[in-house]
Design a protein that fits this description.
By secondary structure, this protein is mainly alpha-helical. The chain has one domain. The chain has 8 helices and 2 strands, in the order ααααββαααα. The chain has a two-stranded antiparallel sheet. The longest helix has 36 residues. The chain is flat and about 55 Å long. About 5% of the residues have low confidence.
Length: 274
């Protein structure tokens, strides 16, 4: 094998390991932690990480191919808008998580003539896990199962789509791929001039991202899974914390991209994908 071929193989393997490292970016970890907080199984969490990674890889490959093969130039406004979408997505994830977490004491309603029998523990409506004071007598739960945020999404018609549960993290991964795809593609072009080899690098980068995100979700799923059974109050605090972190970090990104460093909503937007 020639020295050039060895260097190319080394660069491609570097793409895989950089993809794994890319999965540890703060916005990625915050997003996946918020999604995994609703899961109660480690294996299901790993599949969610894989779905996120696949969505992320598809976007990176699509945008990267446009830049590498067709020489597409992304204007600053579009590049900043792609990054802004990540902040909006994090805010939405935080809101979805927190909407079922802040039930006030006494939210459960009891039918006239019935004993309250109220208690407070973690419980699930399908894959939506939350807690609030409730009872198991008729009318004592506080809300119907179909009134949770995820149930509303299911009723919108999305719930009838096959593999809907995996489409949620897949869609989040697609959006997150928008933010870093241009930077990754431009970095590849500075190293590899051959389009086919550059696309191969992007593919291995994506596979590394999938592997890295699966590992991260496995690590994040353990505390949520263990505490859901043994420490329900602590689990509730973990989920609230994940929702708050996602919301606050999303707001920070929106402000930074829209008004501070990026200036998307100003007269002088500045975008440096590197």
């Amino acid at each position: 094998m020639t020295e050039i071929a060895l260097n190319l193989v080394s660069i491609l393997f570097l793409g895989f390991f950089l993809g794994m490292r890319h999965a540890t970016d703060a916005d990625h970890v915050v997003a996946i932690a918020t999604i995994v907080s609703r899961e109660r199984g480690v294996a299901a969490s790993a599949l969610i990480g894989a779905a996120w990674g696949i969505g992320h890889t598809i976007t990176v490959m699509a945008v990267g191919a446009a830049i590498i093969v067709f020489g597409v130039v992304i204007p600053p406004q579009l590049g900043l808008s792609m990054e802004l979408a990540v902040g909006i997505m994090l805010v939405l994830l935080g809101v979805l998580t927190l909407t079922g977490m802040g039930r006030a004491a006494g939210a459960a309603r009891v039918a006239p003539g019935q004993a309250p029998d109220l208690h407070d523990h973690l419980h699930a409506h399908g894959d939506y896990v939350h807690r609030h004071p409730h009872g198991h007598l008729p009318g004592a739960h506080g809300h119907a199962a179909e009134h949770t945020p995820l149930a509303r999404l299911d009723r919108s018609g999305l719930g009838r789509i096959a593999y809907y549960k995996w489409l949620r993290p897949f869609a989040v991964g697609l959006v997150h791929g928008l933010a870093g795809s241009a930077a990754v593609a431009l970095m590849v072009l500075s190293i590899i001039r051959e389009p086919v080899a550059a696309l191969g690098y992007l593919l291995l980068f994506g596979i590394g991202t999938v592997a890295g995100m699966m590992l991260i979700t496995l690590i994040l799923a353990v505390p949520f899974t263990v505490t859901a059974i043994n420490l329900p109050k602590f689990n509730w605090r973990l989920r609230v914390a994940s929702g708050l972190v996602s919301f606050v970090f999303g707001v920070f990104l929106i402000y930074s991209i829209g008004f501070a460093e990026g200036g998307l909503f100003t007269d002088t937007p500045s975008w440096d994908p590197h």
